[in-house]
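Here is one chain, start to finish.
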Amino acid sequence: MITKAQGEKVTLPCTFTFGPQDTGSLDIEWVLLQPNDEQTVIMYNGDRIYDKYKMDGRVEFVNPNPASGDGTIDILNLKASDTGTYQCKVKKPPSVQTHRIQLTVLVKPTKTKCYVEGSQEIGTDLTLKCKSLEGSPIISYYWKKGTGTEELPATSISNPDTGDLLVKNVSQIYSGMYICTASNRVGADECYLELNVTPPINRAGRIAGAIIGTLLGLLLLALFIFCCLKKQREKKYEKEVHHDIREDVPPPKSRASTARSYIGSNRSSLGSMSPSNMDGYAKTQYNKVPSEEFERAPVQAPNFQPPKVAAPNLSRMGAIPVMIPAQSKDGSIV
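Its structure:
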């Protein structure tokens, strides 16, 4: 049985000898045995080499002339899929010889990572973690201290299967460089970790600060919500005031228009009256209040002058001309 790492080269031996009675044509065939089949790797027949199979470009005979009694081969750049049982069959009629070799291709541990899990404060428990992302099992992990003595802390417990190093009740003397080595049968890989143990932090002050910060945040949030609601109510009130107009109530009449309509109606009445009753109408009508609108606030009555009627018009209306004697300033008749 041969064990190799992925990417390496392996040599599979196959030597043979024949007697004088073996006079037939020499035939050498390498195959990879499968559970239900055989997969050809390389062949030699009739002084010719045939290697255009699955491992094309990665397999070759060590001796350029296998007929000399050496059918050993080299497989280059091994892969994990190359693992299996290889068979060398040599035929030279009437003799047939076979050789079988078990090959195991493993992957070296690679991409190994180290990290700390837990608080690095004095008096706490923490775990140094080590893990290889690639690698064939079984992988074993080994921790050592890289500074000072390589001895691990007295309170540490190592697990080589998981790569965990548990350190209890850490102190500042545990600070320093730690090295983890991951290994299997074909190789090893390392990672490095710097442990820095610090004094404990004032947790009470941190908790109090967090509580105060949370309360202040809630207070600011409440204030913001209050301002938004207040602003919204103010906008709603302004909108209601601007649009609260009843369309079914007509606007109040102005006093000037009422007075003008009253005077205009009296003018039309005067035009239809005779001179005999105009004087009485002028004396009584303008002493009345036209409407209730004038009772609310005193309004000065307009200075209305009755229209003058020409003499010919008075004659047509039936008026009788009257002679009124003139008087002087002292009251005597002229």
